[in-house]
Amino acid sequence: MHRYFWYAAVLVALILSFDVVLAFRNAEHEWGHMGPGTLLMLINVVFIWLYTLSCHSCRHTVGGRLRHFSKHPVRYKLWTRVSKLNADHGKYAWYSLFSVAPVDLYIWLLATGTITDVRFF
Length: 121
Ligand code: FES
Prior knowledge:
The chain has one domain. The protein is about 70% helix and about 0% strand. It is built from five helices and no strands.
């Protein structure tokens, strides 16, 4: 079950990443713009990816069930990297959890018209 939820989490992270890319547009849909919302979304999606990629299921997906790492050097390299990330999985869980709230709040304030979308450039 953990692995299937991990697949779902990857899908959510991909959707959030797509949203971040779209956030680099202004109200006229012109690219190359950025505001505090873009920055918050970017920070959030980085933490979400760190959390997702440091999961035990990711580690097992990339390097599990191998008899000989030497016969699968790419998977071994990926497994080694995910294992390093996995050491801080708990930290990434907290960071991603606490970075979601400001993003949701900012977007809710924008959607309700409480604030206007400020742009750095
Ligand atoms: S979410 Fe998979 S180990 Fe924490």
